[in-house]
Amino acid sequence: MSISNKKASGFLAIELDGAGYVNLARAVLDAESAGFHAATFKDAPEAGRANALQRAAFAGPITRTIAVVPEVDTVYTEPFHISTQLASLDYVSGGRAGWIVTADESPEAAAAVGRSFVEGDALAQEAAASIEVGRRLWDSWEDDAVIRDVATGRYLDVDKLHYVDFETPADFSGTPYSVKGPSIIPRPLQGQLPVLAAAKLVGEGQVPVEVVDAVLVSAPTPELLTAEIRDVRARLGGSVAIVAELDVVLDARGQSAASRPAAPPESDRARYSGPAGGLIDLLEVLLAEAEGVRLHPAAVEVELEELSRLVLPELRRLGSLRPPVQDGTFRDVLGLERPQSRYSTSAAAIAAGKQGPA
Amino acid sequence: MTRDIFQPSGRIQFGIFFQGVNSGTIWKAAESGSQTDFESFRHIVQTAERGKFAAFFLGEGLRLREHLGRPHALDVAGRPDAQTMLAALASVTKNIGLVATQNTTYNDPADLAHRLSSLDLISGGRAAWNVVTTDNAWTGANFRRGGYLDHADRYKHAEAFVETAKRIWDSWETPSGPARRVLHEGQHYTVDVTPRLPRSAQYRPVLFQAGDSPDGRDFAARQADVIFSAHPKFDDAVEFRRDIVSRSVAAGRGANAVQIMPASEFILAATDQEAQEKKAWVRSLQIGPQQAIAYLEQFWGRELSSYDPDGPLPEIDPVVEETSETRGSGFHGAKARQLADQWRAEAKDKGLSIRQFVTSKTARIDATFTGSYTAVADHLAEYARVGAVDGFNISPWLIPTGLDDIVNHLVPELQERGVYPTEYRGTTLRENLGLETPVRSEEPARA
Predict the structure, then answer these.
(1) Which of A258, B129, B320, B418 is deepest in the core (most CB within 10 A)?
(2) Are strands A11-15 and A38-41 parallel, antiparallel or unpaired?
């Protein structure tokens, strides 16, 4: 489905990496009660960081509204494992899982698993291949494959399970590989998990825009962010949702943002630093341009206090921010319908019917 | 040295093995619940925790079981990834151990060690790894690296893998670092990593292992904390204990270093007679007529649907030389024709129909404890008294209610007999199993 260029209201995501694994439960519950639509979990190889997918899984059963969206690398991982793990995350979160596709650029990540270092265009090739494997495996069990038919003694309808027979394309720069399938877990609750990636990884000659549901858009300053969103929209078209990236440092606990000791390290993202009122104004602008905004708080606990008290309620009152939906899926947040399996025999019948005479 | 003399603990503990595949789990009963909904897992793990179970186990199979070249239709199949599910269960439990079966052939040591560390930290020191070594090319077809490992090399490979993982878990000098770099160059993989996570509240994940060959037993005696054994019957269990004690003493680890928890199944009721009736019902639902025929087809390599499940075994010969590995590692390379001759003779001798014969082969005859709560409790107390096992890893035949009667009726009987914990000893799996904390190795730091 296409997403209109201007949204009446958008959604907010928050990066919870700073909560680590010790304060995880509290952070995700606070983010949910503040009204965030999604929590994301960073997963670059740095000291002290626990696996993002597992942190997201831990958050799944204790929440009911907020989507849980980990980063998962595609270069030095096994696509079959990733697909199974993400499908499982969808089950433990009641259909609130998503996947931020990353392509690890560090030589250390290659050395850890004894693989050749991958860089340049080959990164996007690895990401595209992993996404394709993941998506095919998620579809490899049709929705109604588990039939439990006592009369014939069949638990599964084998006609509804499919080999995916993936092969890396001929121009693949890395070591070619294949994946047979089918998956070892039934189709995820959402059918397909929403797939997100940095906008710079997506487009012609990179990860095809058709396999991505949302792109993360960064710019060096808040002023440049609006222009960047428009550029990305022009480049990638209207089929993909845009999520703007913003670092946030707020005046909090009697300290001005500028004097806060816990300012995050420099990133390639735009940064807002100051009082809550200015952030509300900026988010109003951004949410009119993009489908959503992801906030990267300087200190999760501190910023969450201010965001929940001052920022999100005001944005909802202004009509810029959608209210979250309890027991909704992450696809619901992104306005995506639940797709049929690509292998579905009824899908084939429908497609054939459309081409035939009316 | 007293360290070399086995001391029975005088008690047993339970683990639960949520299988998620194969014929042991009944899907045909009205009470049979979902195999994938989180609520099934939540119900069973919280029931187990109410019953002071030491551990919750998840299996792993990295390719869907097949039958005559297509996915197998008749049994429960399709299960969540073990570590993802266990991380989720960590948020709804407090004490129970969380055991992930993970393969050494289709994982990278640095990545798997990191994910197990993550689970251990997220759960507050309750993670364990059940080390398995599946190696066939058929499973490898789902992975980048394919089927690269010879069956004969699997334990050598697994041991290098486990030792590398232990070095990774051992690498942080203090709870805040720094970490020492871990290097490994092996025949099949190289590792060069500066580990990212500190030790957990239980130091490192507990290691389970299930190999039963002499190589497998030695591997467990050197590396494992707990053996998930295939020897639940009393005399067999005592013999297996003796064997493992001697192997672990020979490996320099002491007589009590390796615990034993056999796979088991419980069919219980208020009286022995009711339990026997229940057993007949359970078996009839585990192995239906179609499953009995399909079981033989796996070995015969041909369709046998014209045979009567309640009649004798097929007189025609198998068309394959070796049985397919697609059924799982337990069937690896059995000689089909020889096996068929043996089975026909055995069935004829015992007067068994196809269905009765297959039930006798597939049901865990030795592993099943059938009887009244009191009779089974008396029997288990005997295991505790002599130290035949450290506990039982129970596969429930019903999901999600399959532990209810065990926790409600059997556990209190065992507690009354003083052979089963009434409280968790601590919050980590290592504490609850009564395992010693590993000592940090004095490996020199490497630049």
Answers:
(1) B129
(2) parallel
